[in-house]
Amino acid sequence: MRGQQSLFNDMFPSELQTPDKQRPRNYYLPQRNEALFHRFYFYAEIKRLRYDDCIANLEREFYITAPRIIVILQAHSDEIKKIVLKKPSTKVLKEKFRHFSW
Question: Is residue 54 part of a domain?
Fold first, then answer.
């Protein structure tokens, strides 16, 4: 179709697509993982759900597959243990992560 390429170039300028101006690929991973750990704590300790139900809920909320969630949780078990020792209440969790329904 005539003009289709110029319309696309007008909508998405090439200077926005340069790789040196893009964020690193794992820019939000630490924040996502921290939220994932706290959410896992919420489901496992506060809601008292079974492990498979916790993983299923996390899978729906974070759009990550269950095997990937399990790998992340196993790799960061020390951080999860620290959260369990602190025993944050739902009030603390609400203040820290306002975008979740606690």
Answer: yes
Structure tokens at 40: 């896992």
The sign of the torsion formed by the CA atoms of 50, 68, 90, 79 equals positive
Residue 96 lies in a domain: yes
Domain, as residue range, for 78: 31-102
Residue 85 within a domain:
yes
Range 21-57 burial, b when 16+ CB lie within 10 A, else e: eeeeeeeeeeeebebbbbbbbbbbeeeebeeeebbeb
Asked, for residue 100, whether it belongs to a domain, the answer is: yes
Write down the pTM of the prediction.
0.75
Can you give the pLDDT of all 102 residues of the chain as single tens digits? 555 556 666 666 665 555 666 767 788 999 999 999 999 999 999 999 999 999 999 999 999 999 999 999 999 999 999 999 999 999 999 999 999 998
**Total number of domains in the chain:** 1
